[in-house]
Amino acid sequence: MLGAMAMLLGLLLALLGCTAALDPALEEAWEGWKSLHAKEYPGEAEAARREVWEKNLRRIQQHNLEESQGQHAFRLAMNHYGDLTDEEFNQLLNGFTPMWQEEPALLFQPSVALKTPAQVDWRAKGYVTPVKNQGHCGSCWAFSATGALEGLVFNRTGKLVVLSEQNLIDCSRKLGNNGCHGGYMTRAFQYVHDNGGLNSEHIYPYMATDTSSCRYDPRDRAANCSAISLVAQGSEAALEQAVAAVGPVSVAVDASSFYFHFYKSGTVLLLMAWMGIFSSMFCSQRVNHGMLAVGYGMSQEHGRNVSYWILKNSWSEVWGEQGYIRLLKGADNHCGVASQASFPVL
Ligand SMILES: *[C@@H]1O[C@H](CO)[C@@H](O)[C@H](O)[C@H]1NC(C)=O
Ligand SMILES: *[C@@H]1O[C@H](CO)[C@@H](O)[C@H](O)[C@H]1NC(C)=O
Ligand SMILES: *[C@@H]1O[C@H](CO)[C@@H](O)[C@H](O)[C@H]1NC(C)=O
Fold it and tell me: Is the alpha carbon torsion for 242, 248, 252, 255 positive or negative?
């Protein structure tokens, strides 16, 4: 009887594709990861999640091994999204769909007369709030939009105020934004424009859900928007000028690859300090993730110049370089970084 049961169970497991045995040597690492990120799973769900996590871990280790042999320019690391498959990750988190604006907007075009500095980093000028965490919610568009507004409010008022993504999630649906299932930075700016303001994070905190109704409080106008400016599509030159002249600019990138999900940083080998800049043959121009361009720079090592964008993400400080990525710049609009860039005008 027991034998028959076990056989039946074995058959069921095989049918569901769950036969891959968990690695007992990873028991401690799995428990440590779960407790670090406060993960809990109901009953049977745990084995399936651990299998995904083990698979991700093996891919990360393989990539880092190859990196140490000089095959890649950046390292990967396990993070709080380690229990998601690539498909789940993209479905849950990459909430930006490219489109071009039908609303009236200004167009920021590259100008030959405009000279830009060799490097810009708005973090050093006080324009950028601490890295946030969107959680399991495809609200990147809201984080990208608040980031651009936060920078411009700082420029205007000299005060760095953390702005509310939840306000955008709850209140901009009628403009076509879809809460945790995606949205557009331009439509977030449009909401702030139409609404005549946006609340601060302090009075309208983030919940990583999209089931509550709009609670905008007109007494707390922490930001304004009088117009929307689009950066000439696909032009990294225009994006550079916008970032240099305006402040942090909202951008979208293709963040769908495994390498982007688990991007960590440069190599520990000091001799190759320019490494760590993200570029990948798996990065396309089909953008799906909103981020914030807070600057750009260039590394000069061993007679080689490598230019990069500094992009702020909303996947917590655990991801990337304390929450940021340096993305290859000036190489045919890598990852589509200049394909859908925009900023508000206060
Ligand atoms: C705001 O931007 C203007 C023009 O770019 C600049 O001259 C000014 O110094 C900035 N203000 C602050 C507080 O950074
Ligand atoms: C936004 O505009 C309103 C009305 O014009 C003004 O009272 C408020 O101070 C502005 N807020 C910011 C942050 O610029
Ligand atoms: C690297 O950039 C510097 C400064 O812009 C420049 O002087 C130098 O010629 C560049 N080197 C190469 C190899 O392109």
Answer: positive
Element (H, E) at 226: none
Rounded Cα–Cα distance for residues 221 and 216 (Å)? 9
CA 36 remoteness from chain centre: 21
Q: Comparing 29-33, 130-134, 193-197, 270-274, which segment has the lowest mean pLDDT?
A: 270-274
End-to-end CA distance of the chain: 74
User: Distance (Å, rounded) from C-alpha 258 to C-alpha 235?
Assistant: 26
What does the alpha-carbon distance between residue 217 and residue 165 come to, in Å, rounded to a whole number? Answer: 14
Task: Confirm whether 140 is a catalytic residue.
Answer: yes
Element (H, E) at 327: strand 324-328
Of 302, 303, 309, which is closest to residue 272 (Cα–Cα)? 302
The DSSP letter of residue 20 is: P
- Of the residues 140, 171, 225, 335, only one is catalytic, namely 140
Task: Please name the amino acid found at residue 321.
Answer: E
Mean pLDDT of 80-92: 91
Ligand nearest to the CA of 120: 1
| In the predicted structure, residue 47 carries a pLDDT above the cut 90 | yes
192-238 pLDDT, tens digit per residue, is 999 999 999 999 999 999 999 999 999 999 999 999 999 999 999 99
For residue 59, the 8-state DSSP code is H
Ligand 2 centroid to Cα of residue 238, in Å, is: 29
